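#lab-general

N.A. 3:47 PM
ok so I finally got the sequence cleaned up, no stray characters, all 70 residues accounted for. can someone with queue access submit it? mine expired

B.Y. 3:52 PM
send it over

N.A. 3:53 PM
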Amino acid sequence: LHDALPIFISDDVPHSLLIKVLGINEAASKSHPGSVVFTATQAGDFDGRCGRFCGSGHGQMRFTVHVTGN
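B.Y. 4:20 PM
back already:
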């Protein structure tokens, strides 16, 4: 498995990239993009969400990180 470096940018209010099972909770705001380096120890699909309340759509801000063994 390889290191990953997701970079994320907020176009509006502060957000955070939260993937509990991987121990990630990284903030991003309009003027400060967020990034985090991590190495997954196993392949699989890991659920994530916005970890900072960001408004009425906060509950729908979910994603999946797909980690492959290549």
